[in-house]
Design brief:
The chain is mostly helical. Helix content is 82%, strand content 0%.
Length: 461
């Protein structure tokens, strides 16, 4: 009887366990079916680019079946598209722990870290991916861009050169190689790579024309540089630096109105860019329109109150409008920000001369020479620096040194008529009539008004 009762109890227990197991299995199938439907709905939302709905439904699916690696991955991708990167990374980590394709995880994490400028983390992820797929073109290009972001130009060049071997007709690769040579200050290689990028149909047409123009500019190919910058603006008008570089080229060619118009064109897109107003003030002065130079400098100061150059340009423009006390105030404002700026001291010296403060002027001109010598040493290819140094030497009555500075300026900007005129006048001071006459003859057609100034000095010899 006891044994019979024992068997009876065991039978009941197994019966109960069977019922419970059937219930669990039924519940599990129900959850799996519901999770599958939610994932299908999420996939449909993802395809329709409704990423919020997709992420929510993937989350609901995972809540029912948490061991679905694909759902974790897809949820992470939806969150990435929503720029919710921390949550996306968490989902990708779970997907990876559950065995989802590691290459895909490494790729997407590379993009996230790169886009958030966490270049060290991006480099770690892309190297993990390349260990699995060493000749993957997309990964090699990503590696190069990450290395560019880290300013590791030599490594980036190696990565993109390897990519170019795999895909020699990919214009975007050559665009990035041009970017690298820009960073390496190699204008010849930058030019060659930009040409290849354009020939092979790069998607970055405007940016490539900018790099082509910048290379030509540094190689002193003024005409091709101007043409390339114009094409850059036509292809991609929002490249701010293109307007400044093109304006500077026009300035070097004595095309001051073109420089003005290009700066104003840039200001239509960037009306609050103080640097464009600062440039514009200089060009207005060169074009003989000091009142507009004053207005442009004031606008620059409003936008860039802590930048000395805006005050310097205002000082110069006030000198030109004969508002000498205002000029002194503006120059002192510049010197509070940049105490050793040679150009500012030159304009300050001019204002002191016109205000009958000769002792102060002498000191200012001496400081101008010192400051501009330092500037030209650091910026030997900038013609305006040599022009201003020549002016400072002239004001300090160091005529031989002024001549040398003007000649250097003209070697960089051969059409700069103001430098020609000042050089001609300098020659009259050292009694070199033949050399002064040569400058006068050059100016007769280029700028008759400036030629007349040189002629007046020749007549006094």
């Amino acid at each position: 009887m006891k044994r019979s009762n024992l068997f009876s109890q065991i039978s009941i227990l197994f019966l109960l366990l069977g019922v419970l197991s059937a219930g669990v299995q039924a519940q599990s199938r129900k959850d799996r079916d519901a999770a599958k439907k939610l994932q299908e709905a999420a996939d449909k939302a993802f395809t329709a680019k409704n990423y919020r709905e997709a992420a929510d439904k993937y989350g609901q699916s995972i809540a029912l079946v948490s061991t679905n690696a694909q759902a974790h991955y897809r949820k992470g991708y939806a969150l990435y598209n929503l720029q919710e990167n921390i949550e996306a990374l968490n989902s990708f980590a779970t997907a990876l722990s559950q065995g989802y394709k590691p290459l895909e995880i490494y790729k997407i994490r590379t993009y996230i870290y790169y886009e958030t400028k966490n270049f060290d983390a991006a480099l770690s992820e892309v190297n993990k991916a390349l260990a699995l797929a060493p000749n993957d073109l997309t990964l090699l290009k990503s590696l190069g861009e990450i290395q560019l972001g880290r300013n590791d130009y030599a490594a980036a060049l190696g990565s993109f050169n390897k990519a170019a071997q795999l895909s020699p007709k990919d214009g975007d690769i050559y665009y990035n190689i041009a970017r690298i040579h820009f960073g390496l200050s190699d204008p010849k290689s930058q030019y060659d790579s930009a040409e290849k990028a354009l020939a092979n149909g790069t998607r970055f047409v405007g940016e490539t024309y900018y790099l082509l123009g910048e290379a030509h500019q540094r190689l002193r190919n003024v005409g091709p540089a101007i043409e390339a910058y114009q094409k850059a603006i036509n292809s991609k008008p929002d490249l701010l630096q293109t307007y400044r570089n093109l304006s500077e080229l026009y300035r070097s060619e004595n095309r001051f109105n073109d420089a003005i118009n290009t700066s104003k064109q840039g200001l239509k897109l960037y009306p609050n860019d103080g640097n464009l107003f600062t440039d514009l003030s200089w060009y207005y002065s060169l074009a003989g329109d000091p009142a507009k130079a004053v207005d442009a400098a004031k606008a620059a100061i409003q936008l860039l109150p802590n930048q000395s150059m805006a005050y310097t340009n205002l000082c110069r423009a006030y000198n030109e409008t004969k508002a000498f006390e205002l000029a002194i105030t503006a120059c002192n404002g510049a010197l509070r920000i940049a105490p050793n700026d040679g150009e500012t001291f030159f304009y300050l010296g001019n204002a002191y001369v016109q205000s009958n403060k000769s002792a102060d002027a002498t000191k200012a001109y001496a400081r101008a020479v010192t400051g501009l010598l330092d500037y030209t040493t650091k910026n030997p290819a900038y013609s305006d620096g040599w022009y201003l140094l020549g002016n400072a030497y002239f004001a300090d009555r160091q005529f031989d040194k002024a001549i040398a500075a003007y000649l250097k300026c003209l070697s960089l900007s051969p059409k700069f008529t103001r430098a020609m005129a000042n050089l001609g006048i300098c020659y009259t001071r050292v009694k070199n009539k033949a050399a002064a006459t040569e400058q006068y003859n050059k100016l007769l057609q280029a700028d008759p008004a400036l030629a007349a100034r040189v002629k007046a000095e020749l007549d006094r010899m």
